[in-house]
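Is MF3 placement plausible here? Inputs below.
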Amino acid sequence: MMNKVKTPAEAERLRTSGGILAEVLRRLVAVLEPGQTTGFLGDLATKEMAALGGKPTFVGYSPDPSVPPYPATICISVNDEVVHGIPGKRVIEKGDLVGLDFGVNFEGMFTDGAVTVVAGAEPTAEQARLLKATREALELGVAEVRDGARVGDISHAIEQRLRRDKLGIIEELSGHGVGHGIHEDPIILNYGRAGTGARLKTGMSIAIEPMATLGGRHIYVDQDGWTIRTSDGSLGAQFEHTVLVTDSGCETLTV
Ligand code: MF3
Ligand code: CO
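Reply from A.M.:
I modeled the complex. Tokens:
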């Protein structure tokens, strides 16, 4: 799907969408503790979003007919699950690395965002290294966004930061345009060359989402058809923001 330039009214609804998303993630992080099931947190996300006036975007989503429709409103991915974990009976344990990836539709405008946290404990040194590098990779990617920049500028900035910590960079998954739909053009890889790729334009909106591991870059899809796990069992993390491109930079919407 094409990424359309947002009218001022659409940009305003996109801001509201991103604000709802960020507020739900904040609420989940605030209540998250060991002993809860991922299903409990998933249900909470659904309720809090509805209370704030948002509609889910993930439920029912399928990239192509070979993939079963996604069955929940949020992805909750624990430890070696990098992304797309389905909320359910799994009990979160102290020290688990928990990724929360969420999508909101507010009056037809879509945003996408994610955070990763440690449940009920200070991060271990290795968890802290993974979280810091992945979060900073997102910040550095966002810092490249402005009218006229190239998608490869974002990809390159992310890759450089993740490489500095020798993290596994997942190549099969990427960021993407978002706004009138959940996945729009362009694709934004988490590795690449500066000065290459599609040119960003004021009024476009994109989701930037570095995903990294403490081990190798290889992944596989779990039996459930969705959950993405690291092949070597290492921990994975993801951070994501939706940003609106402006003449001089961008506006981060999912804060
Ligand atoms: N935020 C995810 C992405 O950008 C969407 C998860 S897939 C879904 O790929 F099925 F959960 F929607
Ligand atoms: Co996304």
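Short version: The longest helix spans residues 8-31.
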